[in-house]
Specification:
13 helices; two-stranded antiparallel sheet; mainly alpha
Length: 279
């Protein structure tokens, strides 16, 4: 029986079809709805027409509540990302350098919450915060939301950091010490620069999703924390205004794209610095 042979272009067809129907077309629909408004003929309300307009964006930026939601979203995302890095980096570094026999089991225990449903984890955290008395105070809504975000996204920070740190060339660390650097200097001048790809990956995996994780803010914020993801959900599910919802989604896409460019720029600069020498 003659074996079937496929070229790279043929093997890429399923991927191209998937990208077309589940990425490109939805994005085009978002752009279409974002830059149009729905109008009706005076003689009949049954026929609707789409007309080009910036009205959705003018309405969004004209509302102080919407601007505040953007600040809250990115402020919450930055705080969560910083806390996750401060907690995850020492954990990943200790596990990567440890000679413990069961360190893979310990790593799995940190990643295990990822296997549980996201909503279920958030509900469990709500019950825990209620038991210790934090959830009862409306003044702690932001604190509770940050705690929930850190709990949900901490595994996404540990894993990429551990993956990079476990592959770290120990000869470079020994060379740094042979050249007279102490442990602190070696850590900040060798270990952290070499683990920059893992740091950037962790930031991307935490910073961007937390700007839209309104499930956590709704559940743990007790209705007092509104982020941009909640605004999009309200427009589509409550107000049934797909045009305004698409405009907010477009704004969020642009902000995320700018954030990704910034993080990629820092990553590229770090790689160039490492290529030119560590010291």
């Amino acid at each position: 029986m003659k074996a079937l042979k496929f070229s790279r272009k043929q093997l890429g067809i399923p991927y191209g079809v998937f990208m077309l129907f589940f990425v490109v077309l939805p994005l085009l629909l978002i752009v279409l709805y974002a830059f149009t408004v729905e109008t009706h003929e005076p003689t009949t309300n049954d026929i609707a027409y789409f007309s080009f307009s910036f009205e959705n964006f003018v309405y969004f930026f004209g509302s102080s509540a919407n601007i505040r939601a953007i600040y809250v979203s990115f402020g919450l995302a930055i705080i969560t990302t910083v806390i996750c890095l401060l907690v995850a980096y020492p954990v990943a570094y200790i596990l990567a350098r440890s000679k413990m026999k069961w360190k893979n089991v310990v790593l799995m225990l940190f990643i295990l919450p990822m296997w549980i449903n996201f909503v279920l984890r958030t509900a469990a955290m709500k019950e825990l915060l209620f038991k210790i008395g934090l959830y009862k105070s409306s003044k702690l809504s932001m604190v509770n939301t940050v705690i929930g975000m850190v709990y949900d996204y901490l595994p996404f920070t540990i894993l990429p950091l551990y993956t990079v740190l476990i592959k770290l060339d120990k000869n470079l660390i020994e060379a740094s010490q042979d050249l007279g650097a102490n442990s602190v200097q070696t850590f900040f001048k060798v270990v952290i620069p070499l683990s920059a790809p893992g740091i950037v990956s962790a930031i991307t995996m935490v910073l961007l999703p937390t700007t839209t994780s309104y499930v956590v803010s709704d559940t743990l914020g007790n209705g007092n924390v509104t982020i941009i993801g909640k605004l999009i959900e309200d427009q589509f599910s409550t107000m049934f205004d797909w045009h305004a919802g698409s405009a907010i989604a477009m704004i969020l896409l642009v902000l995320i794209f700018i954030t990704m460019l910034i993080t990629r720029k820092f990553s590229d600069e770090e790689v160039n610095t490492r290529g030119g020498g560590l010291w």
